[in-house]
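Pasting as-is:
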Amino acid sequence: MLRIVDTRTGRPVEIPSVRRHLLSICVHLPAGDVGFGLGDLRAVLVGDVLARTAELHGLQSRTFRTMPGLPPEQAEALDRALSALGVHPPDTVGVHHPNGTLCAAADAHVHAYGTGAQDAVGGVRIDVGQVGPASGERGVPDRAHLPSPGLLEAVAPEGTDPLAVRMLMLGHAYRTPVVVTGTALEEARRTLGDWRQLVADWAQEPSRPTPADVLRHARDVLADDLGVPAVLDMLATVVTRADVPAGAKFETFALLDRVLGLDLAREVGHQHRAAP
């Protein structure tokens, strides 16, 4: 069973709330003609990670997304940005309704920073922290009318892997603000590249099962209010553990990437430098 802190009470709540094997998740994007920002993409990302975590714990998930009606070019631009971030498409997309009809029975409601309350709707409310630039950094639009300017292009220059933006966001608890800086983005990009190279190296060794203590810890922290930053920290530790064989490291990274969605096996089978 997963536990998520309900924003309205500040207390952890088990989801799904009844004993079944289907978790229903609704992501609420801003209503009206206000455009989209990186904070909105982050909310969809949180919903994606919640669904992936549910599946790791043996639950099926169904995702919904409510949003304003968009012209085709804006809808396509939003879909491209989310696809670049590795977000799985929702099962259902609907236009905002005053009574929240589409998501009325959802177990979890993920709200982008600054969206409306909708407290009358049942289920756990999850408010996602804002995303913004550090003082002096080049502008990150609070809200932009897609497709111009592109939201990811605002922080990830051409040629930068968009999944570095995903990794940067995953490194923070979903409730806390994320400050986007060139330094932080470069660190995420560098770590992502290093991990992919290591996974490619480990893939050449005999497979070994994920260590029981690693798997147990990962499942526990993910079940406790989506502790994704703790999973990233644990993977950084696994890299240096001499007691974990290379094949087990590969299986560990491959398994947990089902939640992280960072395409960590991208370099497997490609020419790469020898492991040190």
